[in-house]
Amino acid sequence: MHAHFGLWLFAVALGSSAFGGMLGMASGIFVVPILTTLGGVDIHTAIGASIVSVIACSCGSASSFLKGSLTNIRLAVVLETATTLGALTGVFLVGIIPVSYLYCLFAVVLLVSARQMLVRRADPVVTASEKTSTSWADILKLHASYPDRALGREVAYQVQRVPMGMTLMYGAGLISALLGIGSGVLKIPAMDTALRLPIKVSSATSNFMIGVTAAASAGAYFMRGDIVPSIAGPVVLGSVVGSVLGARILMRVSNEKLRVLFVVVLIALAAQMLLTAFGIHLFGNLA
To answer: Over its length of 287 residues, how does the chain's per-residue pLDDT go in tens digits?
Structure first.
């Protein structure tokens, strides 16, 4: 492998991880199409590299998010159980449902999620009258707060409708397993609309969750030989640097700007999914 190709891999991973890490999405959804279409990398090798990059991205930004009190670890553990069950269900359903139908369904879900996030432009302020002392969030002690640098103050938030959030997380894991894509793009709208989390908390918590999910599947990719060190090495290094950069941007950007940016990404991915449903591949396969 030539040195300039390694530098190109590093730059691609850095940009993808900075953007994906800031939004709490798996960087593979950007890395895989770029490596396959522009770099001529085999799809299986690209997916293997993206799996490792997701782990690196999650680990690289973890310290910044934890130090900034953005990641709700207790909530992440609760939601990850539902996502894992959904992914396991999806594995058993692979091949039963036509792929074109799945892409159309995924596009519709993304568009609905984008509309919901755009309508709810401001993060919710829960009053004492809206809080129910018997909620799951109270029992599991999921409520928390985080310091918002853009606002210059501590922001407390109440986690709401945990059963609905877990149901949506199950669906996110199911669809991601059926389509072979990262579920981060579905986790954040679910946390935003159902659990009513601030967008920064949703992004940081999703970033933590996708690292756990990727770590669980990385062993299988390694045993199959899909993780090629010469490709994965520069991608991992770029992912670590990019994730740290993305974490710093996330903590400084305003919630409204972050929400609008995420909506734009959702609409773009929905358009890509609709084209893929009709057999049009503009940017290669997503992963």
So the answer is: 578 888 999 999 998 888 877 777 767 777 877 888 788 888 778 878 888 888 888 888 888 888 888 899 999 999 989 988 888 887 677 667 776 777 787 788 778 877 777 766 555 555 444 454 468 888 888 998 888 776 778 889 999 899 999 999 998 888 777 766 667 777 888 888 889 888 889 888 988 888 777 776 677 778 878 788 889 889 999 988 988 888 888 878 877 788 788 888 888 878 877 887 777 765 544 44
Domain boundaries, the chain: 3-277
- Alpha-helical segments (H) within 127-254: 136-140, 162-179, 184-193, 199-223, 229-252
Q: Are the beta carbons of 231 and 93 closer than 8 angstroms?
A: no
Q: Which residue has the tokens 């997503």?
A: 286
State the Cα–Cα distance between residues 87 and 264, nearest whole angstrom. Answer: 26
Residues in the chain: 287
CB 214 within 8 A of CB 141: no
**23 Cβ partners below 8 Å, 6+ apart?**
184, 188, 203, 258, 261, 262, 265
Which class for 199: exposed (0-12), middle (13-18), buried (19 or more C-beta within 10 A)? buried
Scan for tokens 């992440």, then name that residue. 76
Question: One-letter amino acid identity for 33?
Answer: P
Element holding 154 (H helix, E strand): strand 153-157
d(C-alpha 89, C-alpha 86), whole Å:
5
Pair of tokens at residue 265: 């990404």
Euclidean distance between CA atoms 287 and 44, whole angstroms: 10
